[in-house]
Amino acid sequence: MESIKSQSHEVYLEELAEATLRQFVAKSNYSKVFVLVDENTKKHCLPLLVKKIEAQFAIDSIFEIKPGEEHKHINTCMLVWQWLSDQGGDRKSLLINLGGGVLTDLGGFVASTFKRGIDFINIPTTLLSMVDASVGGKTGVDLGVLKNQIGVINQPEMVLVLPEFLSTLEERQLRSGFAEMLKHGLIKDETYWKSLRDCSDYGTTNTIKKSIAIKNEVVTQDPTEQGIRKILNFGHTLGHAIESYCLDTPDKKTLLHGEAIAVGMILEGYLSHKLQGLSGLSLQEIKDTFLNHFDRAEFNKQDIDCIIDLLKYDKKNSHGDVNFVLLQSIGKAVTDIKVPEDLFHEAFAYYKE
User: Fold this and answer.
1) d(CA 251, CA 264)
2) Where are the alpha helices (H) located in the chain, listed in sequence order?
């Protein structure tokens, strides 16, 4: 299977990923090779990685962090930076990030800032990280419950996608990644969207590669998110606010990223219908598809008011305005749309119906 060429690196899949990793590290003469894992990937994924590479090169040290969005903050970075320093890491060291989007975001940020930058390789182990975090070079951590407020855009040496890691995941985690795949269809490819709508196999190699290719096409045109790359944020303006609110509210069920943006895509689909001419039939199709794959979340008026208040922290904001990505039709997205606040409540009412 061919690799997918991004701006300064390539995404390799399956057997090609294994061979490329072995060859790259063997010839690169790194002073140290470090591996960052979390509790889950240490147990379920690290043994497989070690088996694939042990004959070619040695791992000098492995560090384990706690899994979950609630640990994606600067205090965890401090622990990893200290570990790299204690283990004699220098500017010729390599950090391999083995985990989901939380770990690759944080690990990429740590590598980008340690000694003013060391090489890193991402090996995503969740469907979400394979189709989303694998391309684009976004690294960073949360500020409190506010997602991805601190970070840099910096590219890894390569990204290695091994779909066999998906067998270690619960179905809920697979569905979370599937939400991003559905988003790729909504913003860029109606045919792909329709092929996924009734899909029950959430992560085939072909659909993973298609989603990576769609995101890569967008990111290659706009590496630093000044224009078209913003379309990748469809569903994320309200979705991130919902995710942050649920994470910080003890009596609310914590939502995985994909679960929160699934809600966000229904809400922002409604805004698209009201402001950008998305047809009523397309809006209903979007709502039915996501509610077919995801349970409906419950929000009362106080919840909604708090979620709306969190919008002011969104990264896409400019000059005090909250900027949305909306759909003119399925497969065609537009950016930098300002939304009257009364429509937020209408959108939640539509979601509840």
Assistant:
1) 20
2) 14-28, 39-44, 46-53, 74-86, 101-113, 127-128, 171-188, 190-197, 205-221, 236-248, 257-275, 280-293, 301-310, 342-352
Would you state the pLDDT for residue 203?
Answer: 85
Rg (CA), the chain: 20
**197-242 pLDDT, tens per residue?**
988 889 899 999 999 999 999 999 999 889 999 999 999 999 999 9
Domain that holds residue 83: 4-168
Q: Which residues are catalytic?
A: 116, 138, 180, 215, 225, 229, 233, 236, 240, 257
The answer to whether residues 187 and 73 belong to one domain is: no
* CATH number assigned to the domain comprising residue 229: 1.20.1090.10
Answer whether residue 75 shows pLDDT above 60: yes
Q: What is the arithmetic mean of pLDDT over 112-129? A: 97
- Other CB atoms within 10 A of residue 92 CB: 13
205 and 346, same domain (yes or no): yes
First to last CA, the chain: 45
CA distances from 277 to 34, 97, 238, 335, 341 (A): 51, 42, 20, 14, 18
- pLDDT tens digits, residue range 267-298? 999 999 999 999 999 999 999 999 999 999 99
Q: Verify that 225 and 319 share a domain, yes or no.
A: yes
The 10s digit of each residue's pLDDT in 78-105 is: 999 999 999 999 999 999 999 999 999 9
The verdict on 115 and 254 lying in the same domain is: no
Q: Please give the single-letter amino acid code of residue 292.
A: N
As a whole number of angstroms, the distance between CA 47 and CA 43 comes to: 7
More confident position, 51 or 7: 51
Same domain, 96 and 216: no
CATH number, domain at 64?
3.40.50.1970
**Side-chain-side CA neighbours of residue 36 (13 Å):** 33
Dist. CA 32–CA 88, nearest whole Å: 8
**Mean model confidence pLDDT for the chain:** 94
Is residue 104 located within the same domain as residue 224? no
